[in-house]
Amino acid sequence: MSDESQELPVFTTAADMRAWVRKQKKSGRKVALVPTMGYLHDGHLSLVKAALERADVVVASIYVNPTQFAAHEDFDVYPRNPDDDRAMLKAAGAHAVFEPESLYVAVPGAGEGSNVVGRETQHPDSHETYVTVERLQKPLCGGSRPHFFRGVCTVVTKLFHICEPDVAVFGRKDYQQWRVISRMVRDLDFAVEVVGMPICREADGLAMSRGNS
């Protein structure tokens, strides 16, 4: 399906993304998802390559997930470079990008925080459904950031429902995250194969990370 002369489709709504994926599946194609928060590097692109080896169609998501951030953390200054990200994904062979503005319920007029930007709101119509993996999310990273894996599991659940992948590819640099997602998929009977890929490293051995920049 790859054609360098064609624009890479970028979908911003759940309905459009889901319709595109279902069209691929209706044609008998296997779909892989590579979830990212953008600001991509070669480690992310290695996940796209792995996805291409396991499926006919690869969707990459770019979404800085606000529920992974506490109110005092760096959501507002998190690095973003969507134009470069799309160009890199196209060159890597991805077939579509899911780049939603928000995956959470916005409540017009509810005041600051109503869009769930890393904080809770008491508005009765605000988003209130979250997914947790009770035991595995508590130690290690979960000890210092108790909100983090609840946000990860919730957004990955939403991405799975929207993109309906057969395969989802994650990096094992975030080892606990990979294990938590794998357990969630097992426990909730998602029909998704979760693949964890080895860490990609810089020349000096440091694990590739957007934080390195």
Automatic annotation (TrEMBL):
Protein's GO biological process: pantothenate biosynthetic process
Q: Does the keyword Repressor apply?
A: no
Which GO terms fall under molecular function for this chain's record?
A: ATP binding; pantoate-beta-alanine ligase activity
Q: What superkingdom does the record give?
A: Eukaryota
Q: Which SUPFAM superfamilies match?
A: Nucleotidylyl transferase
Cite the entry's keywords alphabetically: ATP-binding, Cytoplasm, Nucleotide-binding
The answer to whether UniProt assigns keyword tRNA-binding to this entry is no
Q: Which PANTHER family match?
A: CYTIDYLATE KINASE/PANTOATE-BETA-ALANINE LIGASE, PANTOATE--BETA-ALANINE LIGASE
Q: Write the protein's name.
A: Pantoate--beta-alanine ligase
The organism of origin for this protein: Chlamydomonas reinhardtii (Chlamydomonas smithii)
